[in-house]
Amino acid sequence: MRVINAFEWTHVPHGDDNAMVRGCIVRCPCGSAESVRANTLQGTGGNDDEREFEIISRKLVKGGWRIGRKRRDHRCPKCVALLDAANSKVMPMSQTTPPPAAPIKIAADNIRQITREDRRIIFEKLNEVYVSDKVGYAGNWTDDKLAQDLGVPRAWVRLIRDENFGDEAGNEDLRKMLIEARTAVERVRAIECEMRSLLSLADKLEKGIAEATRVMK
Ligand SMILES: [Zn+2]
User: Fold this and answer.
1) How many alpha carbons lie under 13 Å from residue 118 in its C-beta half-sphere?
2) Ligand 1 centroid to 30 CA: how many Å?
3) Number of domains in the chain
């Protein structure tokens, strides 16, 4: 579909003498409409439609309209205000603004120097969630989780932990899981042994039954 068909073409009155000139009417689904005079573009190359669409759109947007690529996508200034108020996500293509780029966190982290206050906060949190250099972190805490929790670079957490506490090591949860896994493996091994002796017993019994059946015939 040609983009220029987004508008309804007609002749609109223009100037003091109200001469009819080429123009278009743009309509909002609410019933509002506005007519715009179009400048005749000549000899601007192959993409006149797109250019004319852009020029007219710009005029209307200045007046508070929101212009879409299709006829039904235009919204009058009143509706735009209502939509904005309702924080609606219904926005025609031409009006969507790209989301703001994520701040470059790593670069910022590198620039920011660790302050005494940062050290104190990280130290206090470590004091709370780090059990000992033998056990490491309590629960499911890690350097990463702590850094995220406090909103500080992970390198700072590593620094303070190394200086004052001990290795990141595993954490309590991981340790418990390992113990459980080991116990489970041991139990399977024990059953395996018992299973083997039961199987050989079953073998013997089967042979005995076969023998007995033959004799009793
Ligand atoms: Zn409207």
Assistant:
1) 17
2) 4
3) 2
Residue-level pLDDT at 89 = 52
79 CA distance to ligand 1 middle (Å) = 4
> What is the C-alpha end-to-end distance of the chain, expressed in Å?
93
Q: Are strands 33-37 and 130-132 parallel, antiparallel or unpaired?
A: unpaired
Q: How far does the centroid of ligand 1 lie from the alpha carbon of residue 51, in Å?
A: 25
Domain that holds residue 111: 105-164
Domain end (from 95, 120, 143): 95
Two structure tokens written together for 90: 């219904």
Same domain flag for 82 and 138: no
Residues 82 and 139 in one domain: no
Question: Is residue 44 predicted with pLDDT exceeding 70?
Answer: no
> Ligand 1: distance of its center to the CA of 65 in Å?
9
pTM over 0.90: no
Residues 55 and 135 in one domain: no
Dist. CA 31 → ligand 1 center (Å): 6
